[in-house]
Amino acid sequence: MTACPSCAKYYLHKVISYKEPPLIPPYPKQEEIIQELLDYTQHLQASLNKQKGKSIMIHDTDDDEDFEDKEFMPSYLVKEKKEVTFNFLKVKKLTATTKIPERQTEGAAGYDLFIDQDIEIPARDRRLAKIGISIEFPEGHYARVTARSGAAIHLKMDIGAGVIDADYRGEIQLLVINHSNNAISLEAGDSIAQLIMEKIITPQIEEVDFLSATTRGEGSFGSTDTKKEMVQWKDGEEFVSGKNQNMISEVLKEFVRMQVASFLL
Ligand SMILES: O=c1ccn([C@H]2C[C@H](O)[C@@H](COP(=O)(O)OP(=O)(O)OP(=O)(O)O)O2)c(=O)[nH]1
């Protein structure tokens, strides 16, 4: 049948019926899947409480008879073998008086540490303060102890050193540096420092003769500053700004590299 352009009614009807979206049938397993997911979440929570830092293997091999997670795992999630590791910061109390580190808010990066002794740091001096705990953290991490900003500004102190190795099992101590002209008295339970965990990689060292060229080159200590007073001085005389110096040294280095390469070839 040919549509008549003058017959608007028929034409409209034709367009509407042509564009009508197809009916999408309701997905029959929707509720089943939601229930499976809820069961699985509960199961993971229970495993988490039970395992305390150990790994749980989640995989789909039928020959693994004693794999207890299999029955709880929603079928469409069991695709490949994978390991789920639950990360814990393990804290061992070394005294009865010490306090476990605490994060004060959900988003806090640091765990506040509590001193486990009364200690006085003389003016312009430093002392090691005990916190009565040793720790073990997840693989691939190390920790830093650093000052809490409130203590740093009000007491005019800082925390020095601060790197805690992953294999260290001794008591963590705080190197408290007193920058003020008065002695600082700290009491057991005071919190002046925090512990922050950081991911780390420790690749093998490869000794090389050349490093890749960069725009920065060897520039440092304000080399990118543009203010006039930041221009470098040598023997009382202005010479070249850090940026120009970098460019010149990079060009020279590249030239030497090319000469060496052409000599070798
Ligand atoms: O502020 C700090 C710094 C370090 N340590 C502990 C943990 C760390 O793993 C260990 C060794 O620290 P680091 O490696 O910085 O010191 P080192 O001088 O190189 O000593 P070592 O030869 O024992 O590694 O001392 C602390 O308790 N507090």
From TrEMBL:
Its EC number is 3.6.1.23. Keywords: Hydrolase, Magnesium, Metal-binding, Nucleotide metabolism. GO terms for biological process: dUMP biosynthetic process; dUTP catabolic process. It catalyses: dUTP + H2O = dUMP + diphosphate + H(+). Its cofactor is Mg(2+). Pathway: Pyrimidine metabolism; dUMP biosynthesis; dUMP from dCTP (dUTP route): step 2/2. It comes from the Eukaryota. Residues 98-224 form the dUTPase-like domain. The keyword RNA-binding does not apply. GO terms for molecular function: dUTP diphosphatase activity; magnesium ion binding. PANTHER family: DEOXYURIDINE 5'-TRIPHOSPHATE NUCLEOTIDOHYDROLASE. Belongs to the dUTPase family. Involved in nucleotide metabolism via production of dUMP, the immediate precursor of thymidine nucleotides, and decreases the intracellular concentration of dUTP so that uracil cannot be incorporated into DNA. This is Deoxyuridine 5'-triphosphate nucleotidohydrolase. It comes from Zingiber officinale.
